[in-house]
Specification:
Elements: H1 12-22, E1 25-26, E2 37-43, H2 48-64, E3 68-74, H3 77-88, E4 96-99, H4 102-110, H5 118-122, H6 127-130, H7 134-138, E5 141-142, E6 145-146, E7 149-153, E8 157-161, H8 162-168, H9 178-190, H10 204-227, H11 237-251, H12 264-272, E9 278-281, H13 285-292, E10 304-307, E11 321-324, E12 326-331, H14 338-346, H15 349-357, E13 362-363, H16 375-385, E14 389-392, H17 394-397, H18 399-414, H19 420-434
Parallel strand pairs: 1-3, 2-3, 2-4, 11-14
Antiparallel strand pairs: 4-12, 5-6, 7-12, 7-13, 8-9, 8-10
Helix pairs in contact: 8-9, 10-11, 10-18, 11-19, 12-13, 18-19
Keywords: Periplasm
Protein name: ABC transporter substrate-binding protein
Family: Belongs to the bacterial solute-binding protein 1 family.
Length: 436
Amino acid sequence: MFHIIGAQVLGGKRIAAFAAATGLAILIGAGSAAADTTIKWLHLELDPNYVAIWRKIADSYEAKHPGVKVQMQFLENEAFKAKLPTLLQSSDAPDFFYSWGGGVLKQQMATGSLMDLTTAMKAKDGSWLKSYNPASVEGLTFDNKISAVPFKLGTVSFFYNKALFAKAGVNATDIKTWDDYLAAVKKIKAAGIVPIAGGGGEKWPIHFYWSYLVMRDGGQKVFDAAKNGQGDGFNDPAVIKAGEQLAELGKLDPFQPGYLGSTWPQTLGVFGDGKAAMILGFENTEANQRTNAGDGKGLASDNIGHFSFPAVTGGAGAVTDTLGGLNAWAVTKKAPPETLDFLAYLTNAENERIMAKAGMIIPVAVGAEDGVVNPLMHASAEQLAHTTWHQNFFDQDLGPSVGRVVNDVSVAIVSGQMTPKDGAAQIQDAFEQDQL
């Protein structure tokens, strides 16, 4: 599955209005502005404030490079998923597009759809390559080929409504272990408050719980062995235990009514409207809940707290192990050379600092770290700065076929429709099938 951060599903009229308000070209039926070279940039960001920052950067680049036009093209999440594979094989392919990395990016690279950026990024003194956090480049390198330009890092953690926690008599600093977390959920529920905003409709938001529990129970050794086809794979006892712990959470009925049909934007709205005490979400959850709240304002920033996914007593993983994204810009094979020059400009320290100060990203550009000024974003940045293992989203890292099963199984386990053992077996079967 694909993760869209800070987005909401728009109908045709709202998409048209969004395009008119921001001056963007909608991909379907979009025409190219007259220019010597047009760079087609495909994205799925719906926050107009963020898009305006990108447009300003692009305008600045155009002013310095007469004859080059940067055309921003937009697709909403589901259309992106449906159309991108076909687009990449067509004459309408974008020159660069947003990527979540992992197995999906690796697969796109294997099909020959993408440009190998290794030579370009290592050219001359390698200054372009050295301008990024080394871990970000490593995470986008497959078979010694750099497949995309790093853009941002992210991590998933818990955000909570301080007022609702206080009403329930729960102190977030006391939540150190999974057992502590379950106790907090029970206490919040006993106070007549929905403990968690859950997004079961798109499934991938629930996979965060299963993934983190696998990481906490088994550690990197178990997960790496499983994804490399070693040992018991996803039938490892630690993986099954993670499923049992997820099932235990599900039995507490911790989510809002109808969560199995809730999209991620709707889930953010539940949290932003104060209808659930916490949410397991991305680093920019504060901005996203505001965008998706019924009143467009959401919770005040000083009413939102943050804590890491708790440890599991006796588990091999550390509480400092993080799950999250490594997002990048993938360049298509026939993109004009100016595309690489623009991407180097878009992701340089100065521009990444601008985006970070706006609360848009946790930057990967070396020297841009001081741009993270938002307290909650800074908390996530601190997590990443001290991570002992940063794991890309399981459903991305394992590729689309296995990832889809991971998401399905996570929802089935938490909702009591599948046993943890059967869930682990299904993921292992999908993995083995994918290797054929």
